[in-house]
Amino acid sequence: MLEHDVIIVGGGLAGCRAAVEIARTDPKLSVAVVAKTHPIRSHSVAAQGGMAATLNNVDPDDTWEAHAFDTVKGSDYLADQDAVAILTREAPDVIIDLEHMGVLFSRLPDGRIAQRAFGGHSHRRTCYAADKTGHAILHELVNNLRRYGVHIYDEWYVMQLILEDAQAKGVLMYRIRDGHLEVVRAKAVMFATGGYGRVFNTTSNDYASTGDGLAMSALAGVPLEDMEFVQFHPTGLYPVGVLISEAVRGEGAYLINSEGDRFMANYAPSRMELAPRDITSRAIAREIQAGRGIHPDGSAGGPFVYLDLRHMGREKIMSRVPFAWEECHRLLGIDAVEAPMRVRPTVHYSMGGIPVNTDGQVRSGPDGLVEGFFAAGEAACVSVHGANRLGSNSLLECVVYGRRTGAAIAQYVQKRKLPDINEQRYITEAQKQIRSLFDQKGEIRIDKLRQSLQDCMTQYCGVFRTESVMREGLAELEKLQQQYQHIYLDDKGKLWNTEIVEAWELRSLTIVAQVILTSALNRQESRGAHYREDYADRDDENFLKHTLAYYSPAGIDLQYKPVAITMFEPKERKY
């Protein structure tokens, strides 16, 4: 059996930042990061636009309190305000810390870190590295893992969280290269496994974003918080769904309908293209519904709108948002200097996740905590985003709460001993599970069932939702879950068997999908990214509270917990 003081599942920003903090705090601790891809290929590397912080390099009037208010208002008042205060107060410090690690932020002419405008923010506070910010940060963090001697298990798939007697004791993992199984025991386990965008059929998320950490937690009896809040990014490149960063609008691009109008004037006149993402996504969807979308031949009534950069000029486009230009040119053959981009909303981010307190310790319910279990980043819900995340707050959350959770873990493990685990029991169960998948005489291909699941979620739990549609979706989902018993695997070998990994990922997706739909059906209001056409108003009296969903094969049990309101009283959200 392998053993470490701390095992971190997930090699993106939150996991790497936590690992660095633990190693910095106590170099004697044995810290390991396990990831199903190499850490450099984690989805954090795709984050483009930037990271918000009140450095005051561009706007001397900005304050952390203003950043906190923008974040809470953007969240439609569902964010926990104590957590938001930590996020926004610590933001400048973590930016400087990253810079000292070697992150190459874009600069002002005098050498200070540049800051740009971003949707929902009242000041220019988003620090960036052109439009490849996640890439710039993650590379330096992974370099620091090596510097501090953190052990990296890359291309291992974690099959199970070992949680016994209300204590996380370790994980069971499968080496993709050769099918070798290992149990790892640890004094603390941290999940930083990212989001679940692949539950839907059009997403900006990579193929690895299948919600494995959330599903494993749910199977171990941990509730999932606020899973109904799924963010649609307004500008997914049509038809591929690849993200065109909000940085493009931050630098001055326009959204245009088939009539040539900058239609955001009708939805958020004070912010225009820089309204929060939920509002902008619904505006684009409404324009398309009303027949003011555009066809590829330029005629009206089509499935997308234009994102027009042409007035920005070649020099600004190629220096400030080169990656967005490159993606559009590579995937669609469109030169954004000469012609507008084609965009429509795409599933982008999960506001919900594994419930944690502000030290990253996982909650067992409205009051209790799970011993030895921590989480941070997109997989977690400390609820700094509430019902809708503001752009450039996600990288910030990963780094602030990755650092904070790492510091808490470093203290937590000091006087603890390694737990006892019956290793053979877990290995035997896993071998049996793998054999049973290999022996399954099914008739359904994994990719066919996965596509049906993604189509189901997109059709029944999209930008606009109603009770009748979601009930249909749950019935459809139940049928699809039963079909999981009828999948078959062509590859029954041990070497690089990606098919068995896809089978496990599909199980994760079905669990996460069921939790999302059930939580959404029971929230009878519209708030942030959760928009109910049958309950079009926000209902603070009945639903100013967080959803906690407990999964079991028999169904999902819902509980609720209050929102922490410490600074700003909820009021109507207007832009």
Structure characterization notes:
It is globular and about 65 Å long. By secondary structure, the protein is α/β, with parallel strands linked by helices. The strands form 5 sheets. Strands 1, 2, 6, 7, 8, 9, 16 and 17 form an 8-stranded mixed sheet that branches. The chain has 15 helices and 20 strands. The protein has helices at 13-25, 64-74, 81-101, 133-147, 212-219, 246-250, 277-289, 314-320, 322-332, 394-412, 423-439, 446-460, 467-483, 498-522, 540-543; strands spanning 2-9, 31-35, 51-52, 115-116, 126-127, 151-154, 156-164, 167-175, 181-191, 224-225, 230-237, 254-256, 305-308, 341-350, 354-355, 361-363, 369-375, 380-381, 545-552, 555-562. Helix 12 (446-460) packs antiparallel against helix 13. A hairpin with a 5-residue loop joins strand 16 and strand 17. Among the domains are: 230-348, Flavocytochrome C3, Chain A, domain 1, CATH 3.90.700.10; 431-562, Up-down Bundle (Methane Monooxygenase Hydroxylase, Chain G, domain 1), CATH 1.20.58.100. The model has no long low-confidence stretch (mean pLDDT 95). Its main location: membrane. One of its GO terms (cellular component) is plasma membrane.
Keywords:
alpha/beta, Flavocytochrome C3, Chain A, domain 1, Methane Monooxygenase Hydroxylase, Chain G, domain 1, eight-stranded mixed sheet, 15 helices
State the shape: globular
CA radius of gyration: 23 Å
| Architecture per CATH nomenclature, i.e. the level-2 architecture of the domain at 431-562 | Up-down Bundle
Question: What is the number of strand segments?
Answer: 20
> Segments where pLDDT lies below 50 for 5+ residues?
none
State the distance separating the first and last CA atoms.
Answer: 56 Å
Mean pLDDT, rounded to whole units? Answer: 95
Structural class: alpha/beta
Could you state the CATH homologous superfamily of the domain at 431-562? Fumarate reductase/succinate dehydrogenase flavoprotein-like, C-terminal domain
Please identify the top-level CATH class of the domain at 431-562: Mainly Alpha
Number of helices: 15
Strand share of the residues? 15-25%
At the fold tier of CATH, the topology name of the domain at 431-562 is Methane Monooxygenase Hydroxylase, Chain G, domain 1
Name the helicity range: 25-40%
Q: Describe the main β-sheet briefly.
A: 8 strands, mixed
EC number: 1.3.5.1
Active site: 277
Pfam families: FAD_binding_2 (PF00890), Succ_DH_flav_C (PF02910)
Protein name: Succinate dehydrogenase flavoprotein subunit
